[in-house]
């Protein structure tokens, strides 16, 4: 375990806004280890605590126990963003953003469909499935308050952007897109601009989530049946990721 006292950098952009690119960039700039949501399948204690917090079994989240070892954290479950901002009040904050319409299309294709048609009805048959369902469901409920319509999701996305801008002092906040590249990111963090090209777009987070869910579905007949019966919006190719 790294000897850190908590993240110096918090990425508070929602999933599908370039969080994987930000994670790679932060690692290169020396802000590793960097937490990313794609690690969750391999962090049983994190899943356990997220599940307990998300379903209301505990009122506090052991943020220092789970995050103090990291030098940065991005792709944080949405319901934990306020918790981390409170726990690490001097951390620099990076808000990854993208066009709300294209963001919604990306989220709808990968996350919302899986939760709506597959996770809720069938994943409660195993502990891992229950944890996945609770964490993703909790995040969606936190972000969208139960309304997964395009209009509401886009509104919530824009509200999150404005809430972060109003909460975080200007000197601690960078609003950033992967296409902005190294210069604003390095300047904000007080680091020299790397000589290496900026990393190309990263999709490991979504690929890892789909691989994990795909393995689960292939191992559990009820979930596999649920994919065929309930997902009327078209198949997700788990083997292609």
From TrEMBL:
This is P-loop containing nucleoside triphosphate hydrolase protein. It holds the Pfam family Sulfotransfer_4. Signal peptide: none annotated. PANTHER family: P-LOOP CONTAINING NUCLEOSIDE TRIPHOSPHATE HYDROLASE PROTEIN (PTHR36978:SF4), P-LOOP CONTAINING NUCLEOTIDE TRIPHOSPHATE HYDROLASE (PTHR36978). It comes from Coccomyxa subellipsoidea (strain C-169) (Green microalga). InterPro entries: P-loop_NTPase, Sulfotransfer_4.
């Amino acid at each position: 375990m790294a000897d850190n006292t908590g993240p110096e950098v918090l990425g508070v952009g929602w999933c599908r806004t370039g969080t994987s690119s930000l994670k790679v960039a932060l690692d290169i700039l020396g802000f590793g280890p960097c937490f990313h949501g794609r690690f969750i399948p391999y962090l049983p204690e994190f899943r356990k605590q997220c599940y307990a917090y998300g379903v209301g079994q505990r009122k506090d989240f052991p943020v220092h126990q789970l995050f103090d070892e990291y030098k940065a954290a991005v792709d944080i479950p949405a319901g934990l963003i306020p918790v981390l901002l409170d726990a690490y009040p001097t951390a620099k904050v990076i808000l990854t953003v993208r066009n709300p319409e294209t963001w919604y299309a990306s989220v709808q294709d990968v996350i919302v469909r899986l939760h709506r048609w597959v996770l809720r009805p069938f994943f409660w048959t195993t502990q891992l499935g229950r944890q996945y369902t609770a964490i993703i469901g909790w995040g969606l409920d936190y972000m969208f308050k139960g309304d997964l319509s395009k209009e509401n999701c886009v509104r919530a996305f824009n509200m999150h952007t404005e809430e972060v801008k109003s909460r975080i002092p200007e000197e601690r906040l960078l609003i950033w897109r992967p296409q902005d590249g190294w210069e604003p990111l390095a300047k904000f963090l007080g680091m020299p601009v790397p000589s290496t090209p900026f990393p190309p777009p990263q999709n490991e987070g979504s690929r890892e989530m789909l691989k994990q869910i795909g393995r689960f579905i292939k191992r559990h007949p009820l979930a596999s049946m649920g994919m065929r019966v309930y997902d009327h919006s078209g198949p997700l190719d788990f083997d292609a990721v």
